[in-house]
């Protein structure tokens, strides 16, 4: 999970009319997230259909008044959205990437997402949204294996300027728009690249 910036709602009228799935609004959230799920950082169009996620569940017995509130909407993959379902803990809300800085609550070690300082909100986020589910571990492994191989290759070259160029290219893989950047960034920092 990484920090996301909430875009300005391009079509507030749609929300006022009771439509939270307006294409222009969905597109704005997609662009702001670089097409990545707000929770798991998977590029959504590569794995499934994108969904408009209600951070606080819109169910009648939960937060129905927040169903059409822009600040409660996010862009997520079906898997995270389904797994989170209508769960929510008032006293220990999930980490909200549009509001919280996830790096203050989580750290990445290899393919796993861990909780910093025993934070219960982060722990519940991992468990309830399934942020270490097998298929995510597999996809992260593919990504970090590829990066690890590239780092090793960089250090094996005798040509320093070529190596520096390749390392600079690798650092771009940790940019926020890239898939699983939270994990790639951790790997790259471990090598002091
Ligand atoms: Zn997801």
Automatic annotation (TrEMBL):
Give the protein's recorded name: HNH domain-containing protein
**What is one Pfam family matched by this protein?**
HNH
InterPro entries for this protein: HNH (IPR002711), HNH_nuc (IPR003615)
Where does the source fall among the domains of life?
Answer: Bacteria
Residue ranges annotated as coiled coil are none
MF terms in GO: endonuclease activity; nucleic acid binding; zinc ion binding
- Taxonomic lineage of this organism? Bacteria, Pseudomonadati, Pseudomonadota, Gammaproteobacteria, Alteromonadales
Domain (HNH) ranges = 37-87
Q: Which organism is it from?
A: Shewanella halifaxensis (strain HAW-EB4)
